[in-house]
Amino acid sequence: MKAFIGLLRKDYSISRFWFFGWLALLIFFYIVGVSFAAYYDILELSIIIVFMEGLSHLIFMPLILLSMLMIEGKTQLWLYTVQPGWKLLLSKLTVALSYSVLSLLMVDLLGVISLCWQSAEILFLPWKESIFFNIAVTSSAIYFSCWVFFYWTVYYGLGKAPLLKKFRWFILILIFVLYQVIASFVLTLDWFREFTNFWTVKVKGHFFIEVGPENFTSGSEFIHLPLIPFLLYAILAAVLFFAASWILERKVEV
Predict the structure, then answer these.
(1) pTM of the shown model
(2) CB 50 within 8 Å of CB 110
(3) Which of 12, 75, 146, 243 could form a disulfide with 237 if both were Cys (CB 3.0 to 4.6 A apart)?
(4) CA 237 remoteness from chain centre
(5) Measured between alpha carbons, how far is residue 137 from residues 56, 132, 216 in Å?
(6) CA-CA distance, 20 to 9, in Å (whole number)?
C-alpha cells in the first residue's frame, strides 16, 4: 500500500501543472462565453458552454494520461521498478480520474451559476441528469484511457523489434481498423442485437431545457436503456488494461 501511495504522489507531482492549466482553460472559455452571451443578450449560451465543457472531459482524462506516459517515456524510471505493471498504470488512472471528477464538479458549479444568471430564482435544477451525465462522461473517458494505455505500450513495445519498429504507426492503425471491422460485423448479427437488448432498465431520456425571457421549461421521455453493451465495454476496457500491464511488465523500452 505504501508503494502505491508513493506512485500516486509521483504521478500527482508530474501532472498537477497540466491539471491546473486545464482548470484555468475551462474558466477562461466560460468567461469568454458568458461575456459573449451578455454582450449579444443570448443568456442561454452560457448553458451551452457548460455542456460543451462537460463533454470535453471525454478527452481530458486520456490526454492527461498520455502526457504522464510521455514523461515516463523520457525519464525511463519505471523500467527499473519492482512494482507490477498494473499498479503503475492504475496509479496514473487514479490520478487522472480524481482530476476529472474535480474538474466536472467545477463545471457543475459553473452550470449552477449559469442557471442563477438565467433567473433570480432557480425553477429547476437538473441534479439527477447532471449526475447521470457525469457518470456517463467519466465511464467513457476511462474506456478511452484504457485504449491509450494499450496503444502506448504496444507502440513502444514494438520498438524492441528492429523489423517492426519502422511500421509501428501502421500496426496501430491496422489494430484500430480491425477492431472497427470486427465490431461492425458483430453488430450486424441478429442474435447479438437480441442479446444486447436482453437486459434493459427504464430511464429518462431526451432531456431538454428551454430558456427564454419569460419562460423556463424542461422535460424528458422514458427510454429502455440496454445494460449489456456497457458490461461488454467494461470487459473490453479491463482486457485492454491488463494487456497493457502485461506488455509493460516485459520492460518496454521507451
Answers:
(1) 0.85
(2) yes
(3) 146
(4) 12
(5) 9, 9, 26
(6) 16
